[in-house]
Amino acid sequence: MKHHTALDICLRPNCIEAGCDEAGRGCLAGPVFAAAVILPPDFRCDELNDSKQLSEKDRNRLRSIIEQNALCYAVEICSPEEIDEINILWASIKAMHKALAKLTVRPEHILVDGNRFRPFENIPHTLVVKGDGKYLSIAAASVLAKTYRDEYMQNLHTQFPVYDWASNKGYPTKTHREAIKKYGITEHHRKSFNLVERQLVIVW
To answer: What superfamily in CATH does domain 17-156 come from?
Structure first.
């Protein structure tokens, strides 16, 4: 891998390549979100990086740049019910498949962040660990998945303010876990996850 500040646009030049990433795998509540993005070959954006390395303000600004410049993109989810049924790994991959299926341009190759995937429609794919810090298309997917998910959890916060989802976005913070102990869980919690020491009933 070349060492430079700018990310590589793609793995295979002269190929329609889709980058895929997800957000929310480690959360206790809310869906897992996944995005698929195909960028034009001349796309350049030095600021674009792994979404976890960016501020919320920068992610939201970059989201607009990605949406305006991408050849196509799609964002999809798997619900807490799907996560509980098939586990978070396969739910993440299922959400990626849903996003890929919604692309208006069919990719010839798929770049996937991480080390696990299931083939999608016989399109070749490459797994890239920490790919959101190496390739622009994965970084773009990372930003879209993260910003769409954060927005979703902020909207849910208005209905369930005690869990502080506006701040923690469903991740297992101390505030979130203490609220679960005190108030129980909602329909948005992942019941297959270790929410607290003992299983709780839904109280909302």
So the answer is: Ribonuclease H-like superfamily/Ribonuclease H (3.30.420.10)
Q: What is the pLDDT of residue 1?
A: 32
Query: Apex CA 144: angle with CA 139 and CA 149, to 5°?
Result: 130
Distance CA 9, CA 109 (A): 13
Confidence at 4, pLDDT banded by 50, 70, 90: very low
Q: Mean pLDDT, the chain, as a whole number?
A: 91
The structure tokens 């993005």 sit at 37
Q: Which residues are bridge partners to 21 per DSSP?
A: 35
Domain map of the chain by residue range?
17-156
| Residue 138 and residue 48 in contact, taking contact as beta carbons nearer than 8 Å | no
The answer to whether 52 and 43 have CB atoms below 8 angstroms apart is no
Query: CA-CA distance, 50 to 193, in Å (whole number)?
Result: 26
pTM greater than the 0.70 cutoff:
yes
